Amino acid sequence: MADAGQKAPGRTSVWLDGKVRRGGRGGGQPSGLDRDRITEVTVRLLDAEGLAKFSMRRLAAELNVTAMSVYWYVATKDDLLELALDAAFGELELPDPDADEDWRDHLRTVAGGYRGLLVRHPWVSPLAGAFLNIGPNSLALSRTVHRVVRRTGLPDHGITGAISAVFQFVYGFGTIEGHFITRSAQAGMTQEDYFRHAMTAATRSPGAVEILRENEEIMKARGGDTVEEMRDRDFEFALDLLVKGIEAMVERP
């Protein structure tokens, strides 16, 4: 029995409280509104204005209803954000992990898709770190990733480490890429202009100048005519390193 002064444990996920199944219209529910539409507009607002500016009041205004009308479908703002997060995961086109194809191709497909998702929706990365990620689309991604990595031939004790190596890399890469694109847009610049601006500003710092000079040849060898091409080369090369690392561990006694 809990102590009298002890707080009850908080709700951990909208997917665990049964509310996610509530949907169709009934008495008192506003016409033309349902959970799918609310979630769709939430995703659109998060894309357009960012996570920090999102509010239930702002969402209600976009839907042209009262905030209380929205609460008929979701109990809290967190519930809605969790639904939006899983809706974003639903955009991923996942390969059939049981198909007779090379696991390397499947791994690159899923990793590339996840990177694209994080770039398109910069708000996904903080929410993915805040919630349990047990919605149906998130679970479909997890199931696919586990099955693909199992096909590598790694021993069971190495499966989670390989998944972490690949997808925490993708998470970090896609998050930083999404932030850079957002900052460029907020500054009213192209990515190339913003990159040049950032590099010019960095040269005004004595410590940064030395580091930039040391890395000048590396930056030239990086290749790519645009920031996007440079990032693509970095991503593909890093992913190749991880694939080769998996292969080496499979062959290791």
Features of the shown structure:
253 residues; mainly alpha; Tetracycline Repressor, domain 2; 2 domains
Strand content: under 5%
Assign a percent range to the helix content.
55-70%
Order of helices and strands: HHHHHHHHHHHH
List the domain count as a whole number: 2
Mean pLDDT: 89
What's the CATH topology label of the largest domain?
Tetracycline Repressor, domain 2
Low-confidence stretches: 1-9
Straight-line N-to-C gap: 51 Å
Please give the largest β-sheet.
none
| CATH architecture classification of the largest domain | Orthogonal Bundle
Strand element count: 0
Would you kindly provide a written description of the structure presented here, covering whatever features stand out?
By secondary structure, the chain is mostly helical. It has two domains: 14-89, Arc Repressor Mutant, subunit A, CATH 1.10.10; 103-186 and 223-251, Tetracycline Repressor, domain 2, CATH 1.10.357.10. The protein contains twelve helices and no strands. The radius of gyration is 22 Å and the shape is flat. The N and C termini lie far apart (51 Å). Residues 1-9 have low confidence and may be disordered.
Question: What is the gist of this entry?
Answer:
The protein has 253 residues and is mainly α.
